[in-house]
Write a structure and sequence with these properties.
Layout: E1 3-6, H1 26-36, E2 44-48, E3 54-60, E4 68-69, E5 74-81, H2 90-104, E6 109-115, H3 125-130, E7 134-138, E8 143-149, E9 158-159, H4 161-164, E10 173-177, H5 183-197, E11 202-206, H6 210-214, E12 223-227, E13 230-233, H7 239-246
Helix pairs in contact: 1-5
Length: about 250
């Protein structure tokens, strides 16, 4: 498999794998804009040269849009291999490239979000365990911070206190999200419209910078849906899924 690194120089023409291929689509545009603002912070987006969902996205943990304390580590935003790319060792290729790059940059290790049981849009805990990752912290909602240390003596990453107990004070549905996930640009407005049409209390809060994300009341900041204060899910909703959830 040939891999391509997306950079500021080629992001305008390269396919970014996790959204549709039309560069004029709002989903692609929002994700590429988010990526472009991160390259100077050390973000790496490495993908298959072929079109499809086969990529890894990571950056120094100090610049991660998550409420974690992990200075000196590399944080993996997303490792996604699916469809016809599964079962060929490409996840290992991408992770090995991240490990090699992170060691060359003097990092203490890698960290990534997952859960004891696989959740949508989070890393597969079985794969992480197989590759030597272990759980170093866990929030009340079951979201876990996993670590692969290069230096066994290094202090382990941890969640910030605001993320340890995911909860909000507002009644109704409250959604925290970022433009890091391309699907949000399309589906968040559709869910907002569906909620308004059906008289369902709903407020979407877009985290617009790293500081807001680091202080969010949820470990997962790309998409975190609450209802009457309680955390529900990190799974992106379309109108049908949301209305089904709201009817329960």
């Amino acid at each position: 498999m040939e891999y391509v690194r997306v950079t500021a120089d080629n992001i305008g023409t390269e396919h970014i794998c996790c959204a549709i291929s039309n560069n004029k689509d709002v989903q692609v545009a929002s994700k590429k804009a988010w990526l472009a603002d991160r390259f100077d912070e050390g973000l790496v987006f490495l993908k298959s040269a072929e079109r499809g969902k086969c990529f890894i996205e990571y950056l120094p943990a100090e610049f991660a849009w998550n409420p974690i304390e992990a200075d000196g580590y590399m944080y993996i935003d997303c490792l996604w291999v699916s469809g016809s790319f599964k079962g060929h060792g490409y996840s290992t290729d991408l992770l090995d490239a991240c490990i090699e790059d992170s060691k060359a940059k003097g990092k203490k290790g890698l960290c990534i979000l997952a859960a004891a049981k696989k959740k949508p849009f989070l890393a597969d805990p079985g794969f992480l365990g197989h590759k030597g990752f272990t759980v170093c912290d866990e929030a009340d909602n079951g979201i876990q911070l996993w670590v692969l240390p290069f230096d066994p003596a290094a202090e382990k990453p941890r969640f910030r206190e605001c993320a340890k107990h995911p909860r909000v004070s507002e009644e109704g549905f409250v959604l925290y999200y970022t433009n890091q996930c391309p699907f949000n640009a399309k589906y968040v407005p559709l869910v907002e419209a569906a909620a308004k049409e059906h008289g369902i209390p709903f407020r979407a809060i877009r985290l617009e910078n790293r500081e807001e994300a680091r202080n969010a009341p949820t470990p997962v900041t790309t998409y975190a849906l609450f209802r009457d204060g309680e955390y529900l899910t990190n799974e992106q909703m379309n109108e049908a899924k949301f209305l089904k959830l709201a009817s329960r």
